[in-house]
């Protein structure tokens, strides 16, 4: 068997241990004689899977009792609509535009109310996080929305915006469980799991209970109402059962690794290796201002499109996959999520050094 180092932005690398455990349980999950894929979501074994997954996630993130954890479908993009439908009581929300995902979320929210774009970093291709210490927050805003880690551009909020008492809603798809978070600072934290936690098809929403309402936007589909999902404990209909099972295994892996504090240390060590190399390289250059660099997604360029393409091609031949950057940034992007081992980043940096020597 040969595994590559997979730097994909998502779906992305998962811990080998988790994949192996899932493979071992594929034909016969704990003596049930069937795979988790084949079992009723109302069965006792699945009830244990989802209950344990939620308990482990609560443990890892220290989620307070007055927050609900929902395992939903539709990806992060479905939440771009669900959030305004459920949260826009006054019909107003403030969005900070730090990339394509925040932009799309704002566009979707506009269908349900007034959207103020209160800050943006679009003037410099989203290569930084705007100053959020004194934002023009609307008095009537129901919430302030951020995309906390910008998967495409490689920026991350190092400090949360000053929302002046308004509820903070954060898309954490690409930094989920990469470091400790203070859940109490948010009204809603959500993310698609295919970046840092599990297989595509599951989205996790962590929402403060008092934000779960009955009087949502008129016409909101039953499935998109948080109250429906919270009342049914994510089992209103068939949930993404296999995805939840894998997420549960990743939560256990994270706990075994030492939890989110240990992940943060590990992620900082990996990112430092790559950023330190970029900072002294004659050929490669990081595209993000230093203060706002993401620990998870690292875009870089050579400044020459042909050379970028050559790099991506030769890296692939060397077992370093999915390094092509997003089309709006060009160049390369290395996504170094929780499950990317330190050795993977070492191999990438060694390859970059060699490529630089050969092509400078
Ligand atoms: C990938 C991504 C999305 C979109 O996720 P889908 O599950 O494909 O809808 C949204 N936000 C961020 C930050 C992402 O990285």
UniProtKB/TrEMBL annotation:
Subcellular location: Cytoplasm
Transmembrane portions of the chain: none
Protein name as it appears in the record: Phosphoserine aminotransferase
Lipid biosynthesis found in the keyword field: no
UniProt family annotation: Belongs to the class-V pyridoxal-phosphate-dependent aminotransferase family. SerC subfamily.
One GO molecular-function entry: O-phospho-L-serine:2-oxoglutarate aminotransferase activity
Enzyme class: transferase
Gene behind the chain: serC
Domain Aminotransferase class V: start-end pairs: 4-348
Main localization category: cytoplasm
Keywords: Amino-acid biosynthesis, Aminotransferase, Cytoplasm, Pyridoxal phosphate, Serine biosynthesis, Transferase
Subunit relationships: Homodimer.
N6-(pyridoxal phosphate)lysine: residues bearing it: 195
Entry binding sites for L-glutamate: 42
Gene3D superfamilies: Aspartate Aminotransferase, domain 1, Type I PLP-dependent aspartate aminotransferase-like (Major domain)
Residues at which pyridoxal 5'-phosphate binds: 76-77, 101, 151, 171, 194, 237-238
Named cofactor requirement(s): pyridoxal 5'-phosphate
InterPro entries according to UniProt: Aminotrans_V_dom, Pser_aminoTfrase, PyrdxlP-dep_Trfase, PyrdxlP-dep_Trfase_major, PyrdxlP-dep_Trfase_small
């Amino acid at each position: 068997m040969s595994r590559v180092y997979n730097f994909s932005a998502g779906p992305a690398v998962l811990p080998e241990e988790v994949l192996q455990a899932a493979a071992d349980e594929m034909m016969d999950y704990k003596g049930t004689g069937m795979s988790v894929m084949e079992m009723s979501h109302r069965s006792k074994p699945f009830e244990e899977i989802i209950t344990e997954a939620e308990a482990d996630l609560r443990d890892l993130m220290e989620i307070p009792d007055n927050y609900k954890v929902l395992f939903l479908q539709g990806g992060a993009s479905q939440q771009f609509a669900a959030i305004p439908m459920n949260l826009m009581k006054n019909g107003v929300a403030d969005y900070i535009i730090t990339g394509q995902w925040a932009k799309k979320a704002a566009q979707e929210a506009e269908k349900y109310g007034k959207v103020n774009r209160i800050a943006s970093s679009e003037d410099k291709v989203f290569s930084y996080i705007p100053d959020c210490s004194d934002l023009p927050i609307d008095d009537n805003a129901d919430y302030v929305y951020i995309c906390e880690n910008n998967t495409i551009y490689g920026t991350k909020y190092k400090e949360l915006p000053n929302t002046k008492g308004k509820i903070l809603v954060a898309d954490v798809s690409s930094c989920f469980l990469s470091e400790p978070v203070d859940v109490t600072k948010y009204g809603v934290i959500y993310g698609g799991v295919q970046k840092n936690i599990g297989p595509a098809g599951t989205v996790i929403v962590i929402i403060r209970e008092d934000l779960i309402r009955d009087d949502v936007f008129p016409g909101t589909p039953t499935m998109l109402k948080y109250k429906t999902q919270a009342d049914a404990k994510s089992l209103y209909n068939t949930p993404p059962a296999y995805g939840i099972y894998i997420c549960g295994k990743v939560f256990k892996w994270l706990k075994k690794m030492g939890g989110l504090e240990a992940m943060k240390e590990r992620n900082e060590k990996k990112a430092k290796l790559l950023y330190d190399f970029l900072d002294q390289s004659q050929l490669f250059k990081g595209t993000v201002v230093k203060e706002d660099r993401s620990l998870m997604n690292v875009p870089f360029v050579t400044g020459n499109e042909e050379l970028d393409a050559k790099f991506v091609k030769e890296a692939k031949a060397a077992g370093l996959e999915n390094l092509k950057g997003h089309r709006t940034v060009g160049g390369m992007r290395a996504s170094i999520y929780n499950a990317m081992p330190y050795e993977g980043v070492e191999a990438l940096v060694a390859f970059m050094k060699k490529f630089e020597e050969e092509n400078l």
